[in-house]
Amino acid sequence: MSASLFIEQLLNGVQFGVMLFLISAGLTLVFGIMNLINLAHGALYMTGAFLAAAFIKITGNFFLAAVLAMALTALTGAAMEWIVLRKFYGRDHLDQVLATFGLILVFNDLVRLIWGVVPVQLRLPGPFSGSVPLMLDVQYPAFRLLILAVGLLVALGLYLVVVHTRIGMWIRAGASNRPMASALGVDVGLVFSLVFAAGAALAGLAGLMAGAISSVQVGMGEPVLILALVVTVIGGIGSIRGAFIAALMIGIVDTFGRVLLPPALGSMVIFMLMAVILAFRPKGLFPVHA
Prior knowledge:
Helix 1 crosses helix 9 and helix 2 packs parallel to helix 4 (93-115). The longest helix is centred in the first third of the chain and has 32 residues, at 3-34. The chain is globular. It has a two-stranded antiparallel ribbon. By secondary structure, it is an all-alpha fold. The protein has helices at residues 3-34, 41-59, 62-83, 93-115, 142-164, 166-176, 178-183, 188-213, 221-235, 240-260, 263-266, 269-280; strands spanning 131-133, 139-141. The termini are far apart. 74% of the residues lie in helices and 2% in strands. A hairpin with a 5-residue loop joins strand 1 (131-133) and strand 2. It has a single domain (3-280), classed as Orthogonal Bundle (ABC transporter involved in vitamin B12 uptake, BtuC). It has 12 helices and 2 strands.
């Protein structure tokens, strides 16, 4: 492998990793704080992509459409939590899996009814539609660099919120000991709703960014949901730091695995990595609950 190809694939891996982090951050917080397995998180990823495509047609501005799509996806997630998922907090995980799997089917059929079955292509913003020259004559897509920058900024913002703010203190308290946090006066229901809405917005952001470099289609959330669950398990349920590090690991390993290994083995390498890590750290790299 040449140095220029190595740099390009390394950037691809990091960019894929930060995009996985965007969808995994909300998933790991929901699972860690609410003890809720939400398979419908991938449906919010898909929803954000389709809403962005619709708003781009209306406004003609990619960045305005992205903000509107994230806001509406957050409201969709909050409504999902309030109407359906709140009833399953105290239920068995199997009930949660069945309920959220049903929501996947509902969202897929709604999207199919509204937008049809033909994949939609998002139009990239003009300044980011080309390539940027990097070291060793590497030409790298500008929009992928934008994804990388946005993902890192979001990761930094989440770290500052979770570690250095009162809301973050409530989130960490809820993740560590929910009954005690409630006894100390934390409005657990409100925290749950805020976390769920924020996670939905991040999933929508990841979806519209992924849709801009591939395509927006029905069912696009299911494959990435599997990877997000792998990230959540490896990083440690409820840990933002763990989700970020695990997402980068998965992104880089998956990218190089598909380049260097045979196709069948390349698609398995991240699951082999998960098995090895869990053999030594059963609760993940940075578990919230020791």
